[in-house]
């Protein structure tokens, strides 16, 4: 038990420990500070290449997880090999299944350009070859040769027809035979008017003619086919002459890649099969826009879709995907409207983050990834199969029946780094059976680090780094010392520094701004202190309103005098961007009965389970301390006065016990002393959180109502190292206007609150409980007699 000296109330950092005048004289920080465990885990996770050893970086917000991941992985990636390029090309055998081809880094871009140049040459050289005099001459000779044969057969056919009494006539529907009577061709009407015997005789001759003519007609059709085949062969030879050397040239450039060679052979085959499409006369009767679209669609088959280009990548790729939806992770297939119809082709396949990071590292925020439907499942599927399968989400889950492409899967070799909170890590670990198989490396960031000479020097270098990177003024040694003291306040521990560096950086920026407003070229401790104070003023409106309510007695709390069964407890209100302490009056009434200790908050359903547990412990303490000779028989009511938002936590359990003992002993408690701390059944006071804010909150209320020199706060002795109080409170303690007490047991605390020895309090409580037992025992005996 003891009253704490002012020099125990915060960690003072002596500026003289720094061997520099300003941060301009020291080197910037390399790496990260206070995260040795995380660094070792990261190093191991990056080195191990086996399947499933992806990384999850976890820690509270603001500890530098993303910055560390970025800088460390980029440094490692620069020393690793540059991965290959990937392209998609047309599949001539199965057009709906584009082919993926892997090429050395930089060659993908060159292959794409080579094929574009190739198509341009096709459009120029092939039509030119067909427009040559040599081609026209050869084609004419073929046509003439077969036309002569055909004419001879047609003459033979005409002679045969004449011998059967027919003449042949060429019509739109083909060649027909017309009967000849007395040297004149007759019409269909005239044929119908002939005698039946004459008609039958003509039909008989026609049947005989068709049988004999069929053989000649087959020979004519054969000649036509031979002519077409010879012309096609000529076209192929012309086409091969025009395109063959281009294909061979490309094969020479990519001779080491079997996939490219196979593709080029397919290109040559397709061109020769469709050589007529390159003739300038094709489609000349078609409207120009339709002709252009048809020609563009035809030539697109020979283009290359450069999916991943690593020509400018320095080492292994490091990809941050800040919008990790399904398409951005896996890739997508885009569509365009063609006369109201959705169409697509292999050139509309777009790469996702996995493609760009393939052969390197992909960094994702776990919260963002999980906020998008299907993105997490798609990532897991890719990591499990080690393949990237591009499939539109509508097709994947059967939302639409529209036909789509099925690109050939691309093999995946990537290290995924997820960054998230501990809550997300354990949520995935416990409820997703795939998570532990795919993310076997946990990089756990501490939220605090030891306050030692090395880390203080590192903090100074950290400040130097941000001064350089963000063009801030240099900090002098007093400014650095104040920043470190603020860091201990954020950690709520005199022996620790916070690793929530984002909050430290905010103070650096704002202190620099205040120095600028004052025209100073150096940021001093005064500017740091000003930045911290002004930062609080921007967000403490609610606290000021609460203090006003205390001053006007809207919130009822006595900070002087004495009362029985009334103690001032302390709570912390956390608004997210600001937290502050607020005292609450706790009152207890006791009387004979068998209900035990009743928590009114619990009865009104305004308390949490932890608070209810704390109240139940009070009964255990009373029973073990005072009721070993007789049963514990009492009724007690405990309540947080003017509590409208509910009560949770056990940090007021010792406070409630003090009020309970006061009520039973009928001994007054000093209202100028507030209390925080939990208690066990043996009366040992246990540490709680937020002691700094609680003390400052009660101090501010006392200040509003008037400091008497008798006011203060009792805290658990284990929380002394958690004190990082403001200079104002420390000065008040130094001047004897305010006091901080640390206690180990309830016995020590009750003596401070009442000014009486615990033995005296014990005797009074014991007598009161025994009296209650006697009353109830007599009452039961009286009922029995009746």
TrEMBL record:
Reaction(s) catalysed by this chain's protein: Hydrolysis of proteins in presence of ATP
GO molecular function, one term: ATP-dependent peptidase activity
Domain of life: Bacteria
Annotated ranges, domain Lon proteolytic: 561-756
Coiled-coil blocks: 143-204
Homology family: Belongs to the peptidase S16 family.
Keywords annotated in UniProt: Coiled coil, Hydrolase, Protease, Serine protease
Keyword NAD among UniProt keywords: no
Keyword Cell division: no
Native organism: Thermoanaerobacter thermohydrosulfuricus WC1
One BP annotation, GO: protein catabolic process
Residues annotated as catalytic: 651, 694
Pfam families: AAA_32 (PF13654), Lon_C (PF05362), LonB_AAA-LID (PF20436), LonC_helical (PF20437)
Name used for this protein in its record: endopeptidase La
Entry EC number(s): 3.4.21.53
SUPFAM superfamilies from the UniProt entry: P-loop containing nucleoside triphosphate hydrolases, Ribosomal protein S5 domain 2-like
EC class name: hydrolase
